[in-house]
């Protein structure tokens, strides 16, 4: 028990005895605080001793009672309490404790406070970022809602256009049914034997291929048949299912699908050659560039790619053949395809104007003796022959270095 608590107990006991003292001392009262002061002055470990010279009259009766208090509480009052030496030790230990706390504990508190500060800052930053993301998310949701509405509107328009197409009996985007398009090819492009004869000029570029040669737009299988006769391994891809079925009946390896999409699945440098006749005029410029890039990736070094297409530098294709086929998009200028081939990496790029596609009609050379400027006239007529009655097809031939 602490000294303070002991003194409080003493004061409480003295207050109780004061009641009895008042009765015995005929009204004489000694303050409990005075008695406590005597205890404190003498030291708690000593007995209460009041010099007799300081007591007179009825105080003697008080001394008797106080003696009884001492006798009854001797065990309590006589207990030794920590004295000066121990108090000094305790004081020193307290000082050591506070010094140790300042040196050891205080840094931990400072670190904890710093950590708490950083944590609060991080939480504030996270809250700020969350608010920004919620704002962006709300904007994205609004954008998605608008795009969804636009998509629904486009879907409705497509459905209406499809209804118009169905009403007019248009199919496959060319306005001809499967049966009609096959008959169209026979009438306007030529029979299979004639087409095969024209394509023989390209065989030398694939004769020595060790890897498979791929044909895009294999059609009725004329070129694949020529390669098979040379024992060159080959296969074709075509989007027109009746032609694919026709080739399969001939025992040719032909897949139904888009050429570029199919090439995306082919490994690098796994083809011994690539051929496409009357194909690139059916696709967009973006698709043409993608086709050339895929061709360069898929071909082995030294292999050739050949694209045959209508020649827009000959005006007769526009009056004779190009616009007959409703699936044609636009002619490809030879200078454009030559440039694309070089850009994607092909070497030895050349443009060949086919003899078999020339018009049977031409302007004859004028032979008039003595006429002025006859040579210039015939030279101009030769150029005009090329522009009007020249080759209606050309081929771009490129080799991968």
3D architecture notes:
It is a single chain. With 401 residues, the chain is of the alpha/beta class. 56% of the residues lie in helices and 11% in strands. It is built from 14 helices and seven strands. It has helices at residues 3-24, 32-42, 59-72, 74-77, 84-168, 178-188, 192-199, 222-229, 241-249, 259-263, 285-298, 316-320, 334-344, 374-389, and strands spanning 213-216, 234-238, 254-256, 271-277, 299-310, 347-353, 393-399. Strands 3-2-1-4-5-7-6 form a seven-stranded mixed sheet, with helices on both faces. Helix 9 (241-249) links the parallel strand 2 (234-238) and strand 3. Helix 1 (3-24) packs across helix 2. The longest helix has 85 residues, at 84-168. The radius of gyration is 57 Å and the shape is elongated. The protein starts with a helix and ends with a strand. The model is unreliable at 24-29, 42-48, 54-59, 69-81 and 167-179 (pLDDT under 50).
Helices, by number, come to: 14
Mean pLDDT, rounded to whole units?
A: 75
Classify the helix fraction into a percent range: 55-70%
Shape: elongated
Main beta sheet: strand number and arrangement? 7 strands, mixed
Provide the gyration radius in Å.
Answer: 57 Å
Give the uncertain stretches in residue-range form: 24-29, 42-48, 54-59, 69-81, 167-179
Summing up helix and strand content along with how strands pair, one would put the structural category as alpha/beta
What is the ordering of alpha helices and beta strands?
Answer: HHHHHHHEHEHEHEHEHHEHE
Count of individual beta strands: 7
Q: Beta-sheet strand percentage? A: 5-15%
How are the strands ordered across the major sheet?
3-2-1-4-5-7-6
Give the N-terminus to C-terminus distance in angstroms: 103 Å
